[in-house]
Specification:
The chain is α+β, with helices and mostly antiparallel strands. The protein has 3 domains: 2-238, Rossmann fold; 258-294 and 639-777, no CATH class; 299-312 and 335-602, no CATH class. It has 26 helices and 27 strands. The structure holds adenosine-5'-triphosphate (ATP).
Length: 779
Amino acid sequence: MLEVQNIKKYYKVGETTTKALDDVSVAFRKQEFVAILGPSGSGKTTMLNVIGGLDQYDSGDMIINGKSTKTFKDRDWDAYRNNSIGFVFQNYNLIGHLGIIDNVELGMTLSGVSKEEKREKAENALTRVGLKDHMNKKPTQLSGGQMQRVAIARALANDPDILLCDEPTGALDTETSIQIMDLIKELSNEKLVVMVTHNPELAHKYTDRIIEFDDGKILSDSNPYTEQVQTDQFNLKQTKMTFFTALKLSFNNIRTKKGRTILTSFASSIGIIGIAIVLALSNGFQIQIDQTQSETLAQFPITISSVTIDRSSVGDTEEEETEEYPDTETVTAEQSDQEQIQHINNIDEEYVDYIENIDPGLSNNVGFTRSIGMNLLREVDGEVEPVSFSNAGSNDSSSAITSALSTSTGIGVSTFPTQLDDSNGNFLEDNYSLLEGNYPKSPTDVVLIVDETNTTNIHALENLGFELESGDELNFKDIVGTTIDLVANNDYYTELPTGGFVPNTDYQSIFDNENNQTITVSGILRVKESSTMDLLTPGIAYSNDLTTDIIEQNQNSAIVQAQEDSDINVMTGEPVDETTKGSLMTYLGGESMPSSIMIYPNNFEDKEEVLNYLDEYNEDLAEDDQIVYQDLAGTMTELTGGLMDAITYVLIAFAAISLITSMIMISIITYTSVIERTKEIGVLKALGARKKDVTRVFDAETCILGVTSGTLGVLIAWLVTFPTNYVLYQVTDLENVAQLNPLHAILLIVISTVLTMLGGHIPARMAAKKDAAIALRSE
Ligand SMILES: Nc1ncnc2c1ncn2[C@@H]1O[C@H](COP(=O)(O)OP(=O)(O)OP(=O)(O)O)[C@@H](O)[C@H]1O
């Protein structure tokens, strides 16, 4: 059945070598009761541990059912202990946090026996040792004798061939000892029982065979046996503990130290709480910022002006190292910084076409600004007078600033955007409600824009010929239907014999000209409350088509032709430079290209694609030919977004420090737990647990701790968001700023679990490496 041949087991500590087993050879029968007797330190326990596969011999061989164990790997030894061996120890070695039945089932749990079978076998074993009525107790609720019975039941439960008992009655009184010995004697009728004892009397009374040990050698053997050659096939069923079993085992253990677990989880959740709150706040702030941005910034279009600033070139200009306060007698001529970053966009027909081809799904509205002068006349109270669609007062300098602002921001314009796709909504109808009259139907229909309080610019009305004081109220009907004559350049300007031009001042006669087009104020529009595109400045607004029509009509007019050929202002006779001439030509309608283009993306998200589309145009162009656009909203978003990100990262970094601290703490706690559970590790190993299984038990424990602390952290952080939001609402009027993203919450729990498991894994590995024999000897 079992035979050891020339087994040696030496322990080397420092200089001294202890020969615990010194060339021991002995064979055991399949069924007998063997006592190993000997003085303390003679090697009895070592012999038992070697036979039981808890300790490995240095040299020699052990043969089980004819099979040599020389080639045994760790997992074979684990399986051997689990399948073939039952251990009974002097001090019982029950696992305190498990119930009696769980202790008995443990070996079977390790080998993956089904729940029902396990329970049945455990109950049978407990019945056999006479503990049927105590099955539901905890080990601590039993007497010493009863505990040893549980240990015997545990050893029996998996029905091993060999029962190894190390001084099973050593801790018991005489009467209880007798009961236990009777029980073991009974078991020896069906199994090989090897019992280590100090007590020769007990050995002689109960056992069939006495082997005496001294100094690691066999002194005598009362009933030697020579093993016949066995042909039995020796098969081992590998043990395997599932992670779930490990979890259950650890959960039971953790349950016995609730207070410590709660405190640990809370302490290690602080890092998670910190990160979760930072994330919740930054998430909420970002949502607020994004909302505000997409609401308010959507109206900031992408602007393309003929003269613009090339931001990308800021800082590009090569600053030569120039000496300060030099002694030279020369002056260096250099362009100003502004000039260096100024970029002239050559907006030509090709580019305008390119813009008009933007996917209407991305941006359906494009505004073109053409600073053109219109020759307008209106009959007021029987008298014809010149009027204009301008908001400028008679001596108003602010209008220049407003118009400069509107060309760069796209807000406060008078030309409503052109729709790229007519079938898809209508800019005016979507954003402005009609108070009176009609939405414009033709290019010659203009509208009066009023703000939320039905107020419009007084100059807009004055310039149309209405006589008003500030604060006066005008009936809708007095405005809607007003007609204005638009006069062509050729009819409006008179050529002087000198070649100069002057506006004809006989308004009545030009007014009666049949060539004139009639412009009608078709309606009064007010911006809708829901509108995110409040672009038009209060006053008269007209379509881009009207300006292009006027340009078409006037492009070949006499005054335009004359101005084109001349370097003096044909109206004033003053000499003009290129730029002034350019704006003069534009004013007279001689320039058909817009001075600026504003693209209004449909929403904040589509803007990126529009920008890509614009970038594509520039791809193969030389730097000077590129069209540079301004994206004011983008610049602002980058600023705020970047700032928010930076703040978030810094705060998370701080919170992460506490996460690392808690990770270290968990390692220490796991380490303590490993020390505390050393005995348990020994027992698990004696029952056949693999290294992996032991690691698993502790990994499972840290896993539970990680999940608990992560969940606790997220839960606390979530609860904290309520008072935080309340306070923030009181202080800033912003609602629900702190919002814990569920995805972040889950991620944090996962991070907490992974980190704590990482922190606990090293102590867990240490536990697995513990020598089973040493672990069992520990107190
Ligand atoms: N892990 C170890 N490291 C070093 N020496 C050890 C180790 N384990 C046992 N020994 C030594 O091996 C010898 C045999 O020890 P063992 O425990 O087998 O003796 P024993 O006969 O069972 O003694 P006792 O009856 O007191 O339990 C002893 O001298 C002991 O000091």
